[in-house]
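quick one, 462 residues, struct below
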Amino acid sequence: MQKSQMRRASALLVGLTLVVAACGSDSSEGGATTAATQTTAATETTAAVETTAATETTVAAGGDELKGMKGTTPLVKLSDDFKTALQGTPSGKGLTDYNYAGETYDAIVTIALAAEIAKTDGSAMADQIVGVTKDGEKCTDFKSCLDIIKADGDPDYDGQSGPITMNGNGEPLEASYGILTFGAGNHLDDALTTYVTASAPESAVKPLTTTDVKRDGDGVLKLGGLLPQTGSLAFLGAPEFAGAELAVAEINAAGGVLGKPIEWSPGDSGDTSTDIASQTSDRLLGEGVDAIIGAASSSVTLTVIDKITAAGVVMYSPANTSLKLVDYPDHSLYFRDAPPDDLQGNVIAQLVVDDGNQSAYILALDDAYGTSLADVIEAGLKAAGVDVLGNKIYDPKATSFDAEVDEIAAADPDAIILITFDEGSRILKTMVEKGVGPSAKAVYGCDGNIGNALGDNFNAGK
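---
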């Protein structure tokens, strides 16, 4: 496997192992990385952004206004079989982006395996979740892992989203990111995608804890969905629901959990501008679910995590990245298989450095995700000697972003980093109008906005 040489700033390497791969081959099964220093590159379609076929796109063709814009998202190359299976689910029909589908699928498989080990769907199953992801016999699907458990073995589940390998606090110690680039028509050019892997330092390792809330199970594993059907992250909803539906179907086809089919009750999380997440959580808790999959937004999770974990119910997010959740008092019942922002923030900072930018401006939405990621990126850039000309926090509900873009234009940075949700398309439209779009500046995005949905919204004027 060929590896490109990175120009590394020593300060960025403190607490982070980071390797970038140029175009090469991917020999890992399902695209999962097998070590923090392994890298792959994609000249093929990528998992999070691939369209079913360029000729089948249903959105109006756009121009090239976003061409050259780059962004990062947690990403490995999903297998063709997995993508086909996702498209066969009720929520997966016509999928063009696959953001966090693998993470959602893996969340459910991990919970199911933990329940089998604990021999209960009660709160005690939470104590087995971290162990399912590490230090055992490798397995890559529910059935093979279940066979190991039935033989009194210890499974180490490497899933569709990668090896997972959880820290003691229930979050990944390593991650793979895709570096994605927009091309013609304001859609992602899959031939330009490369991968970066990052891992936390030894100093970040936390001891395993056990839950202090006792809730008995009834022998039937019931799962609830708290995922975005509406709101500023609605573009993540379809792939996440598809991942959940596929996992439930495959687990039940393999005999279910504790000898019975698992049950799935989907629900909308909305966003922080509504009370939908609280209403959905109350409904799911009233239904007696054993675990809730979600939320996608870190800020939404923070509005409901207390009531969910206090009830002795597992909360497992496929997409939360905020650092506010690292040491949150969650009764050891909260888990995520999306990596925390300190990993992605340093990946973005290194990308800006490697591209030769001497100055940068950060524009971030005002929530737990936006502010924490912005702070990590700013620290990484400054440590590398990049002049940070601004770290502007904006209101994502604003009707206009002229004032923010005017400030960027006045600062005249080499690079502009956008930490946004779906309002990012309107920000970019304003940037293009004011002459600081991707054709004039180096513009970078992140997992909250990077994907073909951003280009589709831009083309549609949304």
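The mean pLDDT is 88.
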